[in-house]
Amino acid sequence: VFFVIERSLHFCSLGWDLSLQTSPEICISIMSVSEIPGKHIALSVFVLKNCREFKLFPNERTTLLSQADDLQILQYCLASYNKKMGNDFEAISKDVLDLLEVIKQSTIHTIEQEILKFQCEYDQEKNDKKGSPLNTEEENAISKDDQINSVSEYKNLSTDNILTPDFRTSVLNLYSEYKQSSNHCSILDAYVNFIKSLTNKSSELHLTFKTCDDIHQLKPDIEDYFTLQTKVIQVLKRINKAEISHHDSKSNAIAPHDLSPCIGQLTPTTPRIQKSNDVNSTLNCGTPKTPCSQSHKTALQKLLVHDIFRSYLHLLVNSRSQLALARVFNIPDRGLDHLAFTHLKHEASDFGLSMYQTLSSYMVRMQLGGSGYAPKSDSPLLVYVKGLGLLLELTQKLQTVIEEEPKLRAACRRVVNIIKINLIRCSSGKFPRQLVEPVSESIYESLEEIINEVEDSLKKSPEKTTNRGSTLLGLLCVQVIHYFLDRSSLSPTELDL
Q1: How far is CA 450 from the centre of its chain?
Q2: Least CB-packed of 1, 59, 116, 161 within 10 Å?
Q3: What global pTM score does this model have?
Q4: Do 223 and 350 lie in a common domain?
Q5: DSSP conformation class of 137
Q6: How far is CA 133 from the centre of its chain?
Q7: First to last CA, the chain
Q8: Cα dihedral sign for 92, 94, 97, 102?
Q9: Residue 270 within a domain
């Protein structure tokens, strides 16, 4: 199963059927992470920002998956499992969507259980401080019933389809292993890490939010997760010493009709094809609609170009991302086909390295030469040495810029320009200047907004030296790119549908 709009070859073995449909209601409003008095802050941006600042991800290179990324990886894992079982390398759309729903419900269940546990402890301490008796047996029974109902709702999910528990478990294990090996996480994974740290009373995150003055500015920003996000905000308010009675809690809770785009700019600017009202018309289609106008086709092309820029930036901060590497493997044209990608993947598996590490190691051995270093004479990658060398040369050039350019803005501008020039000069002519330049300018404007935030933050605290093997400038540039990728992953496009 492969992409059908210009992406089929470039995504190589990581295919995705465009007939897969995600929920149309996910409409994410992103505002600047900067604290703007009187304006709302999108909760997901707030969560991601704090996950990075308090080091709640497995490592600093962890990158956020968009909806499209998540679907593509899940479909790849399902197809891989089918292949392992002796079937064709393919995945049925309904099965992928069922699995995605299982993952969502399971993760939401985990988060809500953490919140329930915290609320019970909070209420217990509150009663103890007031000298009130402990919860009655009836109250305990109600809490227990609520917990059982939550578990039962999750267990009953997807029992009426062909996905058996063992089948689901095997595929979901592959999915988890893939994310872990590629340094990826979903937005719900970020919420899990955030809420587990937040409800730990000895954590730095918990102690920080006890005196934070801006909790009231937070607002749900993903309609599908509205209930969950409301609970997260209420936990933050409780920690913030907001003593709210049960009655006040009900009256002050955010009502569904209050959900509206957060005030502020959408950052970064991701090309759009359809307004939210137009999306519903395509939801029940079994196959993707053919673009019916030149403007629609141009919009799709801009989405592809934006995705290419994003993937190159992705590799700069997370070289283990197989997904990002697949998207730029032969863009611009380097003579690298699906077979080259497959051979590189097998080589990486044999050595226990990421694909990019394998690529770098292979080219270094080629350059060193000699019987002690050179790859085997029968290596299937030998016929692709030129193309692999061009790919490594471009990514290393980008890495050198962010580490050596003395000015942060200039570093980001140069990185964007290098990618832009390479696309425009593509021998196939698929990326004309009039298509690429508007996207590159939009991306740089988004990066510049984040740079402003970083510079404002630096003014509040003196610069510190680093001993992590990189310059302070390089670390700041990586931070800017991380924030850009986080926000672009939260911005839905037609490729998510």
Answers
A1: 18
A2: 59
A3: 0.79
A4: no
A5: H
A6: 46
A7: 17
A8: negative
A9: no
303 in the same domain as 242: no
The pLDDT of residue 129: 67
Check residue 158 and give its pLDDT: 42
User: Could you report the per-residue pLDDT of 365-389, keeping only the tens digit for each?
Assistant: 888 876 666 777 888 999 999 999 9
Distances 153 to 149, 159, 229, 263, 340 between C-alpha atoms, Å: 6, 11, 19, 35, 45
| Amino acid letter for position 55 | K
5 in a structural domain: no
Residue with tokens 């016929």: 383
402: domain CATH number is: 1.10.486.10
Tell whether 72 is covered by a domain. yes
> What are the structure tokens assigned to 250, written together?
């009900």
Point out which residues pair with 185 in neighbouring strands.
Answer: 64
Number of structural domains (the chain) is: 2
Distance CA 134, CA 140 (A): 10
Of 117, 75, 67, the closest CA to residue 93 belongs to 75
Adjacent-strand bridge partners of 439: none
Residue 287 is predicted with a pLDDT of 42
What percent of the chain is modeled with pLDDT above 70? 70
Residue whose C-alpha is closest to residue 139's, from 152, 127, 153, 154: 127
Question: What distance separates the 2 farthest-apart alpha carbons in the chain?
Answer: 80
Tokens of 466: 């680093």
Residues 465, 341, single domain; the answer is: yes
Q: 244 and 154 in one domain?
A: yes
DSSP string, 238-297: HHTT----HHHHHHHSPPGGG--PPSS--SS-----S-HHHHGGGTT-SSPPPP-SHHHH
